[in-house]
Design brief:
D-Maltodextrin-Binding Protein, domain 2; 2 domains; 6-stranded mixed sheet; 11 strands
């Protein structure tokens, strides 16, 4: 018994030492952050800023690589299939991680089991805007008008699967709102038609919408966050306006393959938190309209989001494509 106990003690000690030594040696070469969309946009901005920060924190170069395709599927799948060694990471958000399971047909990976969240770094809301000469002044007046005039209101949307389309579908579902959706390829033409009074409403990312709201070209009706957005503090949330379920926050963060050793996950997580706490990071993120966001338990938060969104999206009538 005693020799066996000694061997067991030695083995357990070695098992504890090896991961610790492995994490201390990591990283010994450049890291790669995959942005699963083309250049520009929130994922790209976050990926490049995180790359700068991780390079400073870890003392290794970080290469940021755009791998667009099939929405965010191609780039994300590339990281899922990469070696789980902490050297290949992917920018992910509510759309690519939580919405994709419900909106992408035959998704070739499971975000809940194939990826581990390192940390979330930011979130942003969406803003329901109305043309400047629109009669109703707030969300309750708008919904009353919609119920009295079913099918008369027009809602611009830049396509299936986008955050704007999800916000629009949620609004119609939760509020029981009968309105005609007008499809566009992207956001700018929607604003052109709103300013010409050809389209009534548009649910757009707050960072973009605020430019038009502050210029008086459109009017902010409600934002989709759990709290008022700091860049449009005078616009109430849909939640405080009576639609308690109308909460959509576009969180973004960094993910690694699920089998990445735990010590490396924790090393990366702390490095991100260290950089996210710097004044330079905060200044650059808020200048782009992002709210800084790091949940206390990132894994529990992402798991809950992955479970929550398919139910809401199915209820809103959004189906995989």
């Amino acid at each position: 018994m005693r020799p066996f106990a000694s061997v067991a003690i030695i083995a357990s000690t070695l098992l504890a030492i090896v991961p610790a030594a492995f994490s201390q040696a990591y990283p010994t070469k450049p890291l790669n952050i995959v942005v699963p969309i083309g250049p520009g946009g929130g994922y790209d901005f976050s990926g490049r800023l995180l790359g700068e920060g991780l390079s400073k924190e870890l003392g290794q170069p970080v290469v940021v690589e755009n791998r667009p395709g099939a929405g965010t599927v191609v780039g994300t799948q590339y990281v899922v299939r990469s070696a789980p060694d902490g050297y290949t990471l992917v920018v992910g958000g509510v759309g690519s991680i939580a919405h994709a399971t419900a909106l992408v047909k035959d998704l070739p990976y499971n975000p809940a089991t194939d990826l581990v969240p390192l940390q979330l770094v930011s979130t942003n809301s969406y803003t329901l805007t109305a043309r400047a000469d629109f009669g109703p002044k707030n969300l309750q007046e708008l919904l009353a008008y919609a119920r009295a005039n079913p099918g008369k209101l027009t809602l611009g949307t830049p396509g299936q699967g986008t955050g704007q389309a999800v916000a629009t579908a949620l609004l119609k579902s939760i509020a029981g709102m009968d309105a005609l959706e007008v499809q566009y390829k992207n956001a700018p033409p929607v604003y052109i038609d709103m300013m010409a009074s050809r389209v009534d409403l548009f649910f757009d990312a707050t960072g973009t919408a605020q430019t038009f709201v502050k210029a008086g070209k459109v009017r902010g009706i409600a934002t989709s966050g759990s709290e008022r957005d700091f860049i449009l503090p005078d616009v109430p949330t849909a939640k405080e306006s009576g639609l308690s379920e109308m909460v959509l926050e576009n969180w973004t963060g960094l993910f690694a393959p699920a089998a990445t050793p735990r010590p490396i996950v924790l090393r990366l997580r702390q490095a991100i938190l260290n950089f996210a706490a710097t004044p330079d990071y905060k200044k650059r993120m808020t200048a782009q309209g992002y709210t800084l966001y790091s949940p206390p338990d990132v894994e529990a938060f992402v798991k809950a989001e992955i479970q929550r969104w398919p139910v809401l999206l199915a209820k809103a009538g959004l189906k995989p494509q």
